[in-house]
Amino acid sequence: MTETKTDTATERWLSYREEIKVLDATIRDGGLMNDSHFDDKVVKGVYDACVAGGIDYMEIGYINSQSQFPTSEFGPWRHCREEDMRRIVGDNDTPLKLSAMSDAEKSDYETDILPKDQSVLDMIRVACYIHQIPLAMKMVQDAHDKGYETCCNIMAGSTIPERELDEALEMLGETPVDAIYVVDSFGSLYSEQVEALVEKHLVALKGTGKEVGIHCHNNRQLAFANTIQAIIKGANYLDASFAGLGRGAGNCQMELLLGFLHNPKYHLRPVLDCIQQHIEPMREKLGWGFDYPYMMTGLLNEHPRSGMAFNASKDRGDIVKFYDDISAEE
Q1: Is residue 228 a contact partner of residue 195, using CB atoms and an 8 Å limit?
Q2: Which of 105, 176, 196, 329 has a CA positioned 20 to 30 A from the CA of residue 154?
Q3: Which CATH number fits domain 16-285: 3.30.70.590, 2.60.320.10, 3.20.20.70, 2.160.10.10?
Q4: pLDDT more than 90, % of the chain
């Protein structure tokens, strides 16, 4: 009997990398489209789907300052108080880990982030711009000392001068941070640029035990492709959201990512069910996803705030006017 040889290319394609961790950012990033005013049933629906889908982390919102983001204007997922989170997840007696993001200069982190033994959270992600790295380092150390896993998301990665990024990675390499993210905040990066940035992070962090993550926006419909490229280069922490729900053009779509990863621990059906029941019904009101104004801000490597304002204005739909307006600013 002739033994059939396994095709090595097929074997690689059908295999998976156990080190990969998938983080759902639906409620946190999506909260930038509705000031974090999600109904409990939506948050619970996403939580249940993350548990059933085998997703590793759910980022349930921000822990940001109640003075800068007053409760009269912003929903509970901008502050992630324990009573609000536990109303949804109880003690979270599941394999799913919970995360919250804390923005540099927008967070009263020393008081609002409780010690880990008093919180249902497992991980704190610090978000910062390149000039805020010294503060981010303090925030990472504070969260680590309180017992949390930690990540640092250096935002607007497409705008950072190479020398400054090199210095930031060297400084963060000295901290107890568990993962550092490449963040395409403006959805402007091409796959070659993502590849180069992930490689730079990996080289800088070699020997530290720290992981590299990827967070992409979809202004030019490259969020999924860029996430794949980051995976190929060695990024192990992957952000995505249900139906891509996120600020402006949104994020890498969770349903695409899970289908790509080939890991049998991930299950697509619960995610699709949640999208059908809870996420798609919000699309018309929230208006996230690929749109021409977001494409244009991505092409210009700009924050999508101008596109978001345009889409909320009386001129919405006049994409030529928007193009002329933002081109004139260059």
Answers
A1: no
A2: 329
A3: 3.20.20.70
A4: 93
Residue 109 has pLDDT above 50, yes or no: yes
Q: Which two tokens mark 307?
A: 């596109």
Strand-strand pairing, 211-216 and 97-103: unpaired
The amino acid occupying position 37 is H
Please state whether beta strands 123-128 and 211-216 pair in parallel, antiparallel, or not at all (unpaired): unpaired
Token reading at 130 = 């390149």
pLDDT, tens digit, for every residue of 141-172?
999 999 999 999 999 999 999 999 999 999 99
pLDDT of the residue at 267? 98
Residue 322 neighbours by CB under 8 Å, 6+ apart = 292, 293, 296, 307, 310, 315
Per-residue model confidence as pLDDT tens digits over 33-74: 999 999 999 999 999 999 999 999 999 999 999 999 999 999
Return d(Cα 291, Cα 111) in angstroms, integer: 39
* Closest C-alpha among 81, 93, 76, 70 to residue 37: 76
Distance set, CA 25 to CA 188, 297, 323 (Å) = 20, 22, 30
Q: Let me know: does 181 contact 151? Beta carbons within 8 Å.
A: yes
Q: How many CA atoms lie within 13 A of 13 on its CB side?
A: 5
How far apart are alpha carbons 236 and 208 in whole angstroms?
15
Closest CA to 21 of 253, 214, 252: 214
* pTM, entire model: 0.93
